[in-house]
């Protein structure tokens, strides 16, 4: 016979799970239904192929847009964005580049929208989680950073997000308090972020400390070292390591099953970038 307290505890855990777990990718996904309604109301807009994949439970990979607007000049940024989307497609997943266009959060961009964003460059608002409400309310065009991209990906049930480098703790951050909101988002939003670490201009040891404080699972893929975006060598050790896609899947599965708020950040060296899509599950 089951102990009543245990049953109550299980119910509480299930309730918590509904709040913190990413929405499942299916037509019955309540987030999708909300998104559909929001779409009708001029809210979140999901591109056709992305919507179709989410409804059918097929793999979708979120991509950020600040790297397009602020990371490179036009037209290299446009070409690179298209190339990254093509790599995702070749690997059997649907790419969903996320941005806010004229106040509308868009999950997946048409080619002309991608070009518009690339041409706008730094005139697009660099939009982190803090800025989302303002950019939408003012009907502005915002390029989403890692934190804002994770926010929208989780809202529509996308569980994997691929980018170059994430933000981190800036040097002298101990006095300036300049810590990227990417790090706090990683601690609160259950989206697996596949990236090449942080740039060496940031304070990597403090970035790792902050990720630990936020409860973020940081895993090196095929490396013991935390990569520094342009180079696999930072001199800082990654807290843990996996070597196969199956190990990655097991860690992600464990995080969800155990309902931990320790979400997964997989760090890759740049040379592994073409291999990242093996992580889609
Ligand atoms: O090497 C780079 N890392 C990160 C970014 C972008 O900058 C954001 C972090 O900005 P901040 O440090 O202001 O939080 C990241 O999420 C990403 O969008 C970038 O352009 N270049």
From TrEMBL:
<dbReference type="GO" id="GO:0016798">
    <property type="term" value="F:hydrolase activity, acting on glycosyl bonds"/>
</dbReference>
<keyword id="KW-1133">Transmembrane helix</keyword>
<dbReference type="InterPro" id="IPR022830">
    <property type="entry name" value="Indigdn_synthA-like"/>
</dbReference>
<keyword id="KW-0326">Glycosidase</keyword>
<keyword id="KW-0378">Hydrolase</keyword>
<keyword id="KW-0472">Membrane</keyword>
<keyword id="KW-0456">Lyase</keyword>
<keyword id="KW-0812">Transmembrane</keyword>
<protein>
    <recommendedName>
        <fullName>Pseudouridine-5'-phosphate glycosidase</fullName>
    </recommendedName>
</protein>
<dbReference type="GO" id="GO:0005737">
    <property type="term" value="C:cytoplasm"/>
</dbReference>
<dbReference type="GO" id="GO:0046872">
    <property type="term" value="F:metal ion binding"/>
</dbReference>
<dbReference type="Pfam" id="PF04227">
    <property type="entry name" value="Indigoidine_A"/>
</dbReference>
<keyword id="KW-0479">Metal-binding</keyword>
<keyword id="KW-0464">Manganese</keyword>
<dbReference type="InterPro" id="IPR007342">
    <property type="entry name" value="PsuG"/>
</dbReference>
<feature type="transmembrane region" description="Helical">
    <location>
        <begin position="256"/>
        <end position="280"/>
    </location>
</feature>
<dbReference type="GO" id="GO:0004730">
    <property type="term" value="F:pseudouridylate synthase activity"/>
</dbReference>
